[in-house]
Amino acid sequence: MTDLLFPLTIFVLAILVGFEVISKVPATLHTPLMSGANSIHGIVLVGGMLIAAEARDPLGYVLAFLAMSFGAMNVVGGYVVTDRMLQMFRKKTAAPKAGGKS
Amino acid sequence: MDLQTVVYLAQIAGAVCFVLGLHLMNSPATARNGNLLSAGGMVVAASATLLSLAVRTGGVGTIGWVIIVVGFLVGGGLGLYTARNVQMTEMPQLVSLFNAMGGGAAALVAIEDFVRITGAGGAPVSTTVFVVLDVVIGAVTFSGSLVASGKLMGLISGRPIIFPGSRLLTIVLAVVTIAGTALLVLGAGGAVTLDGTVSLVVLGVILVAALVFGVTMVLPIGGADMPVVISLLNAFTGTAVAMAGFVLDNPVLIISGALVGASGGILTKLMADAMNRSILNIMIGGFGGGESAVAGAAGGPGGSVRSIGADDVAIQLAYASSVIVVPGYGLAVAQAQHAVRELAELLEEKGVDVEYAIHPVAGRMPGHMNVLLAEANVPYPQLKEMDEINPEFDRCDVALVIGANDVTNPAARRPGNPVSGMPILNVDHAKSIVVIKRSMGRGYAGIDNELYVNPKTGMLFADAKEGLAQLIAAVKAL
Lengths: 102, 478
Known about the structure:
The structure holds two protein chains of two kinds. Chain A is mainly alpha-helical. Chain A has a domain at 42-83. Helices cover 71% and strands 0% of the residues of chain A. Chain A is built from four helices and no strands. Chain A is flat and about 55 Å long. Mean pLDDT of chain A is 86; it is low at 94-102. Chain B is elongated and about 80 Å long. The termini of chain B are far apart. Chain B contains 17 helices and six strands. A six-stranded parallel beta sheet of chain B has the order 3-2-1-4-5-6. Chain B is α/β, with parallel strands linked by helices. The model of chain B is unreliable at 286-301 (pLDDT under 50). Chains A and B meet through helix 1, helix 2, helix 3 and helix 4 of A and helix 1, helix 2, helix 3, helix 4 and helix 8 of B.
């Protein structure tokens, strides 16, 4: 049981950090944020690597292969699409906005 | 310091990058760097893991390497291709699809681990608990996200699908899952003797039950509630990944999973609040009581609708000093983001102050409308959140509502109807209101919008893109 306490502590603290960091993000960025968070859980890719290294039979190979490709799709696609969204957020367009305020 | 320590530290560094990356997403100015930092963290954590596997005693077999490299190339290639080619309006279904992949991967990791440990003499209680949690949450997310994605793509009807006995099926699935979990845990604890094959069969049954549960959970949920569902499923995946971290005893998985779980949870809550629904209410299904409540409570439109032509609207807009555009999903469906930006620029040239009022649930996922407008080159300082823009409607000359419905309905301020209490944009406070809409059709809440019969309101009956094209032509002609 005691060897569970350490991971459990990390888990709880990370949840609190998550709450704290996210609650400040403006609604404007919620879609990229969700997409960005979505890419972060692609870290499961690391899990895929670990099991791929351990797998010793055909079933294990298939499971590990699927886990690797799912995880990679999540990570690569997630970061690329988030970046695509964020690069569109610009402060000013080329068109001048001078005199717009009344 | 041995290599494993270095690898461990590298993984912690990766986790730090994720937190800082999320933190930088606080502002549109730094958000892109935040995402890059987060991606950098991912590269560091993944490379460190690869390195540790390569140099450990025994290393990784050839097949292992093939799986890692080919798996990465196949999945990464598919991800890259779809991410590059997706339309911004299709973003919710893509996020949902990637989410399904993450959930599926987390479940697969746990299954493989369990199969291997069971073959080697059985898993301890704690591992078993986390394996089952991971498999259940991961599988529910996988099938649920695929259904959500299918609904958003239009492959599956976006309407709530409720079939006879669906409630009973859900209960049966829950019972099967809980009983299976109890059996495995007791078996691992030694209270019941389970042979390896039986354990695997039980885990298989749990897996199937969870997959079916994911489908039956999302099917009854209507299109308008999808933002909440996607967000919730995102939180689920985070949790599943954290569980995978417990199974593999890997801290970076635990930290990242918990981060995403918490952030997804908060977003879900924010979205549900913005739609005036409880999360439970949404999950139980349908737009609760929409149809039945209409007849009694809506009161029916009390006045007549005033139709207005594009030329009149153009004059109103061009001679206004301030205009607030209220875009809704109808605008995105009609792909009219660029047209609205063009109109806004024309008006700005004429000295009109133009701003956009973005309701939190405009679009099909939280913040979706902002992305669509950003794609059309609308500068983000003009995109105003609900709380910020609401007081400004009192001072604004014309509110131009394009493809938005329920979020502008003043009936929400009164109790006793399906939108009661939903936070709305105070469009009715504007001096004059123009609504571009195809017909008098109802929104998702299924009630008439009192805004349309307001004496200050003129209705321009047209598809969003077509109506804007008429307006642009008319403003240019002035």
